[in-house]
Design brief:
Blueprint lengths: L21 H16 L2 H22 L31 H22 L4 H21 L1 E2 L4 E2 L11 H10 L4 H6 L1
Antiparallel strand pairs: 1-2
Helix pairs in contact: 1-2, 1-3, 3-4, 3-5
Length: 180
C-alpha cells in the first residue's frame, strides 16, 4: 500500500510516491517477519504480492543498461527519492543495495519453502541480483573515501544508511568491508 501524507493541509497523495526503497523494503519486511515467526500461512498469502513488488521495482527503477536503481527526481540538490530524501544524480546506491538484498533473500526463502515451484523466477532474480552487485561495486564505490556513494551525484562522504544496507544485504565482499 501507499503511505499517505501525515500533514492535514496536503490535499493530494504523493508523499513518498517516488520512494524507490518502498518495494524492496516491503519484500524484506515480509521475509524478515517470516524468519522471525515461521508463520507459513502469512508468507504463503504474501508471495504473489511480493513477486509483484519486485516486478514493479524492476520496471520502474531499472533502465536495463546500468543495473542500479535510478532516481526519478534529479533536478534538485536534495531529492525525495527514498526514505532519507537526500539523493543526487541518476543512480541510488541505498535503494540498489536494498533491492539486491530483497532479490537474494526472497529467492532463498522461495527455494527453501517451495522447492522448484518458483525455480525460473528464482534463477531470474539471482541473475538480476548478480548484475546489480557487479554495477554497484563498480560504479558506486569510492576509492577516495572507501565508502559507497548514496547517489551517483552526491558528495563523496560516508553516508551510513548506504554502508549499512550494503553490509547487511551482502552486496559487498569482506575485503571491501575491511576498507570501510
Amino acid at each position: 500500500g501507499h503511505i499517505t501524507s501525515p500533514y492535514p493541509w496536503i490535499s493530494h497523495d504523493d508523499w513518498g510516491s517516488k520512494y524507490s526503497d518502498m518495494m524492496p523494503g516491503y519484500v524484506l519486511a515480509a521475509v524478515y517477519l517470516y524468519n522471525l515467526t515461521g508463520d507459513r500461512e502469512f508468507f504463503d498469502s504474501m508471495v504473489e504480492s511480493l513477486i509483484k513488488a519486485l516486478e514493479s521495482q524492476e520496471k520502474r527503477y531499472l533502465d536495463g543498461e546500468v543495473w542500479l536503481c535510478k532516481n526519478l527526481v534529479t533536478e534538485n540538490e536534495l531529492n525525495m527519492n527514498d526514505y532519507w530524501e537526500h539523493t543526487a544524480g541518476k543512480y541510488n546506491g541505498y535503494t540498489s543495495a536494498m533491492y539486491y538484498e530483497a532479490l537474494v533473500k526472497f529467492s532463498t526463502l522461495l527455494e527453501a519453502l517451495y522447492g522448484s515451484q518458483y525455480a525460473d523466477l528464482v534463477n531470474r532474480y539471482l541473475d538480476l541480483a548478480g548484475k546489480i552487485k557487479e554495477d554497484f561495486n563498480r560504479l558506486m564505490w569510492s576509492d577516495k573515501t572507501n565508502t559507497f556513494l548514496y547517489g551517483s551525484g552526491n558528495h563523496d562522504i560516508l553516508y551510513l544508511p548506504v554502508q549499512g544496507a550494503a553490509i547487511r544485504g551482502g552486496i559487498v565482499d569482506k575485503e571491501r568491508i575491511k576498507l570501510m
